[in-house]
Amino acid sequence: MMLRLRALRSLVLLVGFWLMGVTLLAAMAVADWLLATRVFTGEAALGGGVAFVVTGLTAVAILRGMLAFVRAGRLGPVPHAVAITPQDQPELWEQVRAAAEVVGERPPEEVYLVAEVNAGVAEQSRLLGLLSGRRRMLLGVPLLAGMTVPRLRAILAHEFGHYANLDTRRLGAVTMRGRNAVLHTVEALRDGNTRLDFVIGSLYAGYARMFLRASQSVARQQELAADQMAARHAGRDATAAALRLLPILDTAHDYYLETYASMGGTLHALPPVGQVHGGFPQLLAARTLEQLVALGAGTRPPRPHPYDSHPSTAERVALIEKLPADGRSDGSAVEPTALTLLRDRDRVFTELEARTLPPEAALLRRMSWDDLVMARALADAEGWARPLRVAVARALRSTEQGTDNAATKRCDAAPQATTSDKLPGLEEVLDAFDDGLLWMATADRLPKPHQASQLLGASARNFVRPRIFDALAGMVHVHLAESGLALADIAWAGQPGLVLPETWEKDMDRALDAAVADTPDTAPLRALLAGT
């Protein structure tokens, strides 16, 4: 009963959000009439014209907000998604319909696949949900790749459970859509270009905060009721497992996009067709749950929005686990993933890629994963090595000219005119180290922050030593790759990069440490090079 009263209060406040615009327009109309008939008459007509322009612009801003409020319930186009029909994907549609049926709701008329770890149901509505229309479900392909079929059932039932909240079935739906409409209105006014848009938007934002606070308990109760509905449909343990897995999948997907899918960004290249999103299932298949959890280690979870309707995952899982055991499986990893529900998965990944990549991506070259890893590894290695090669080249040139002026001049950037083919190679760099040029002439020519340029002696060497180590390692990687001894490894279970010969993996770090010591010794590194 208390929840019903809270939902009714939210409805009243929502109506007030609309009436606020009507009231403001009526007040301005009365003010304009009074100004025209009582104040600005005769010679003061010019002042009245200015006042009418201001109120007219204010009215436009208010009407724009009211229009945004009305249009919030409309379903627009979904350009970055792939529409699927029951004929295309009958198995997935069967799961969607079963979840809707079990909670007593009608299934959606449209289902779209998106490139996010997410799922949701939207409804074309009028009068803020009092009159319902067609429904649309969005399902993330990365979500299907990470969830087993029983856990997907729990997620689907949760989404339909929003519309089947028993005690507040209609009022709860109005509250949910009303929160979305209020936020949509405030954002529309915030995006305005005029000062009046900002002023009116601030007024609406204040009312929106009041409405969101008042409807917070109803919205949170809806989330918890939807969880209960999911547990009844898919099982207690499968629902709890799905909730725990969602943030892990989200983190893993972000890692995949940053580490794998965008690997060729600086090379103006892309993975094979369909693999921009199609590689994510391979990463999930290669890693244990503990490895996926580790991807988010050390990162602070995002701070929840003060008006977020979702309780914390821990709270939701705890409430589900209080339910009596139902003897059903938790949908563990031995179950097939929900991706197996899709027919012709390669085509789905290709279509999704075509809709999510920007148009200019069509001009980029496509490379196999191994070629992409090799090209990126070489580009990175050459980038690490270039500052050292430039510094050595300048030190050698200074020595040949018989002047030490450049040796004492600290610089913050390498000259752009120096081309790679004129820079010394690995053997020449090692010769320069043997000739005593590392700390006497080369180190000071490496780019460094202004604060570090004031360091002297051991402090200066210790600051720049890791950079020299990395630069020398980069030159070694390029040498081994050009010799055919370093192979590309996509490493779905680790970090993509080069696989070096066993001898190098064992002894390379020690040899590099000796080469960049206070008294450089290049013999161990030269011995390894001689073996190649």
Walk me through the structure.
The protein is of the alpha/beta class and 532 residues long. It is built from 19 helices and 8 strands. The protein has helices spanning 2-39, 45-71, 90-102, 141-146, 149-161, 169-190, 195-234, 236-261, 275-278, 280-286, 289-294, 313-321, 345-356, 369-401, 426-434, 437-442, 457-482, 502-515, 523-530, and strands spanning 82-84, 110-114, 119-126, 131-140, 269-270, 365-366, 487-489, 497-499. It has a 4-stranded mixed sheet with strand order 1-2-4-3. Strand 3 (119-126) and strand 4 (131-140) form a beta hairpin. Mean pLDDT is 83; it is low at 404-418.
In short:
The protein has 532 residues and is of the alpha/beta class. It has 19 helices and 8 strands. The strands form 3 sheets. A 4-stranded mixed sheet has the order 1-2-4-3. Strands 5-6 form a two-stranded parallel sheet. Strands 7-8 form a two-stranded antiparallel sheet.
